[in-house]
Amino acid sequence: MKLMIASDIHGSLSAAERVIELYQSSGATGLILLGDLLNHGPRNPVPDSYLPVQVAKLLNPYAKEIIAVRGNCDSEVDQMLLDFPMMEDFSWVMLESGQRFFLTHGHLYNQDNLPPLAKNDVLIHGHTHVPVARSCSEYYWFNPGSVTFPRGDLPPSYGLFESGCLKVLSLLNGEEIEAICF
């Protein structure tokens, strides 16, 4: 199983185009979107190429391959533009190994407010715009960063899961930023 993970597009068509370009070339069979898809939010600047309707049109052909969760900037109006569900606060992905991914945006569930995780589950969220790939005492924690508004002097980034490893990669050049294997 190979999955691509992106978060915090915030309506940037150029970032969404790069995500789809990388998704198509990655060989991934699924695209996980961790919220804040179309709206830039009141605390963020308007991103380059802010075209939320075009972002929706770009993502919709991949509806059957997308698992998405709601971010704090997502709304029912956004859902009306999208052909895939994105209004749930979280979702689970069960791996063939029995390990589970808990997918959420990060504003409700995060490392400070844990969901009900079993030993070796993986908490995957965005929201902070800061990439993380680490092992905690009973679980793993992964954040792909942001494709539009990276923080911490890091490049825009996304995640890739393959062969038991989660990697944060630069959206610009594919360079590995962080990784964890289990």
Automatic annotation (TrEMBL):
List keywords of the entry alphabetically.
Hydrolase, Metal-binding
Its required cofactor(s), as named, are: a divalent metal cation
The UniProt entry, under InterPro entries, shows: Calcineurin-like_PHP_lpxH (IPR024654), Metallo-depent_PP-like (IPR029052), MPP_YfcE (IPR041802), PdiEstase_YfcE_CS (IPR020935), Phosphodiesterase_MJ0936/Vps29 (IPR000979)
Family of this protein: Belongs to the metallophosphoesterase superfamily. YfcE family.
**One Pfam family this sequence matches:** Metallophos_2
The record ties this protein, via Gene3D superfamilies, to:
3.60.21.10
Protein name listed in UniProt: Phosphoesterase
Molecular function terms, GO-annotated? hydrolase activity; metal ion binding
User: Taking every annotated instance into account, which residue ranges of this chain make up the domain Calcineurin-like phosphoesterase?
Assistant: 1-162
Return the EC number.
Answer: 3.1.4.-
- Top-level division of the source organism's lineage: Bacteria
Query: PANTHER family, alphabetically?
Result: VACUOLAR SORTING PROTEIN VPS29 (PTHR11124)
